[in-house]
Amino acid sequence: MTKSPFNQRSEFEWHIPMTGDMHVPGIIYASKQIIQDMDELAIKQLCDVACLPGIVGAAYAMPDAHSGYGFPIGGVGAFDPSKGGIISMGGVGFDISCGVRTLLTGLTRDDILANQEQLAEKLFHTVPSGVGKGGDLLVDGDELDEMLYRGAAWAVDRGFGSMEDLKRIEEGGFMRGASAKHVSNHAKDRIRNQVGSLGSGNHYLEIQWVDKILDQNKALIFGLKEGDAVVSIHCGSRGLGHQIGKDFLDELAPPSRKKSKKSKHKSKKSPSFASQIPIPNRELACAPIHSEPGKRYIGAMQAGINCALANRQVIGHLVRQAFSEIFPNSNLDLLYDVSHNTCKAETHTVDGKDKMLFVHRKGATRAFGPGHPDIPIDLRDAGQPVLVGGSMGTPSYILAGSAEAEHKSFSSTCHGAGRTMSRTEARRRFKGRDVAESLKHQGIFVRSFSFKGIAEEAPASYKGIDEVVRSATGAGLVIPVARVRPLVCIKG
Known about the structure:
The protein is α+β, with helices and mostly antiparallel strands. Helix content is about 30%, strand content about 25%. The chain has 16 helices and 19 strands. The chain has helices at about 30-35, 40-50, 90, 110-115, 115-125, 140-155, 165, 185-190, 215-220, 240-250, 290-325, 405-410, 425-430, 430-440, 450-455, 465-475; strands at about 5-10, 15, 25-30, 55-65, 75-80, 85-90, 100-110, 205-215, 230-235, 285-290, 335-340, 340-350, 355-360, 365, 385-390, 395-400, 410-415, 445-450, 480-490. The strands form four sheets. Strands 7, 8, 9, 11, 15, 16, 18 and 19 form an eight-stranded mixed beta sheet that branches. It has a seven-stranded mixed beta sheet with strand order 1-2-3-4-5-13-12, with helices on both faces. It has a two-stranded antiparallel sheet with strand order 6-10. A hairpin with a 7-residue loop joins strand 15 (about 385-390) and strand 16 (about 395-400). Helix 6 (about 140-155) packs across helix 11 and helix 10 runs antiparallel to helix 11. The radius of gyration is 21 Å and the shape is globular. The two termini are about 35 Å apart.
């Protein structure tokens, strides 16, 4: 696959015409600079997604797109169940419902700077982070199932936050239709002591400050002004979500062609009818939405979403506790919590008719425009808050969904900066200690259990977040509201 088939439709919109087995075109929203630097595998994966049964409209890539497992990260695909549409593990992502939660502190940048190092240490020791790191909260048996059914609402019932929080979380804090019985015991084992923890990789807990307001009216509705301090939490469903994806991939994927001929053990798994769906590669293993395995995966995936919502709710409570020890009168109201690794059943307009579609957003954020009924009523006039993370030393953005995004991307937009190099390459190029020291000189305190993790997440291993947001804005997918910069970053 080469980049030559692109047809540029506007400054920030590029089309890949249908060829071969593609049912729909590919559409990439990006600037010319981003397109020129986009990796070839991500483009091929976008075309592969366009070959899946029941896809409608187009296979979309956001400006932060880069290659992932099956689907590109930053990829969006909507599937019509009435046309044989499918549900794909690779299209959801293995960190089910990874997302961002932003809290308003009621404090200023100066308040944080006066207590910066103390806050960094307090948060680092209050919120568990790192590979396999869990905390003191143990969730087991029937209570674990209850968490998988009720998400953040379960956490609020346990005393982690308030009912007011639920109004500012997508789906009101929990996905209806979740099925804990379709989550394996192994997956449940991997979350028992990890609710309320960040994990590793690109997950973070940041104290940020608003350095620029980009839309005064929407910022007023969101409760933001220049100089304000906010807290952002980026994490997902931990090992449970990954195991759900692996379990169903093992069940539904065609046999691997890479199996050694010398192996004495042959797989006893009989391929199900779902594994016979013609797919470009096994990473796009899927099942028809209305099939028995499709329904099981959707139920398990929705339980994974609830796990992530509960996880961020508990972390938010721990952050509030940490702040209260240094700022006794702090409140930390929730601005919004939204995921970017999901598949949701949503009504969208296709060929002039409203259709129920299953919208896969992998490393892409839902971005409903002003007036949408699923936006909290006190935010509805502004549009849904869209929380886009940077990379430790770079800005992050608070955006608002646009009405235009409905017909351009099934109300979807970018989720972050997007990697430009692998974690292996980042470790080769950067030393974590040097990265941390460099950030400290910039006034950013980074705390992590692992310098390796800091090296992997070095800001230079990501695209420029400003160019990503400029592309999403120029394409009409979002409206910028505020730019924020980090003061404290807790990494796994």
